[in-house]
Amino acid sequence: MTSPATPPLARIRVTADPDWYEQAGISLGIRAGGLVFTSGQAPIDANGVTVGPGDFEAQARQALANVSTVLANAGSGLDQAVKLTVFVTDIAHQNTFAALRAKHYAPPFPAETFVQVAALADPDWMIEIEAVGIAA
Predict the structure, then answer these.
(1) Strand pairing report for 81-88 and 111-116
(2) What is the reported pTM?
(3) Mean pLDDT computed over 92-105
């Protein structure tokens, strides 16, 4: 007896206006089933300009705002995030990020990986955040 074929899971591109990653051939996010997967969101404004060079807190706020925008545009939100991966160029900023995160999340908190990397795509970036969220 054969089982019915499972239909492929639709992948829906998440965009913004303007879409700050489109020119690089990258999706801001992908919605697949009930989940949203964001690309790493950098501390850039809608025009692709780095916010707060040398200011970790300003960059973290912008990266979180970008994650929020992508999740919202997919029918999700920061309050629906289930997993964050936070890349930083200096692990010493962990407490600063934790204080910002506390303003956006309530129990049950998303799972999180906080990792120091040697460099990000732009030498002025100090942080990049990717998320997985639940979509309505």
Answers:
(1) parallel
(2) 0.91
(3) 94
